[in-house]
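Exam revision sheet. Question 4 asks you to relate a sequence to its structure. Input first:
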Amino acid sequence: MKRFTFVNSLIKEHGYKTYLEIGVLFGDSMNMVECERKIGVDPDPVRIPLCCEFHRETSDEFFAHWKETVDIVFIDGDHEAHQVMRDVENSLLVLSENGTIVLHDCNPPTEESQLPERPKDIRAWHGDAWKAIVELRGRHGLEVYTIDADSGLCVVRFAPGRKADIECYSIHHLTWPMLKKDRKRLLGLRGARR
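Answer key, structure tokens:
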């Protein structure tokens, strides 16, 4: 299942009206998403999608002035764990009560693909975004899990009263051997939706 197929299924299922995408790059996902209002953010896109409101700035700059509520956020910008965590935290501040955050590239297949900085000779790079997912799964009041599709699609939703899914981990203490040994539990890995 592709990311935009999953996002479109959430939009349809929940009747979402406002979609925000962090990290537009070529605009392929943005163009495939079917939502009433689409907002894109990217400081250096290859192509600007014509079908959306576009903000040529970093996600930090965008969230510094954006105060409107959005229903669904797709995060596929900087894949460094600390930036991913900031993007999630900022998205939670503007997310509607029944909203959903979806993150891409959360299930890296190899140690090289999950390095914080992209190696020159690697095609499929995920960064260490997975560390932010593990830290989020250790928080109360959130539902956080990862769909095993399209390099890992993580879902984050408000879940008042919900206890943390796992013990609390800090991004700083997570390592590749830990993920390799306990991937399913740490990421809350689930099979792809059909």
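Marking note for examiners. The beta strands are 18-22, 37-41, 53-55, 70-75, 95-103, 142-147, 153-158, 189-190.
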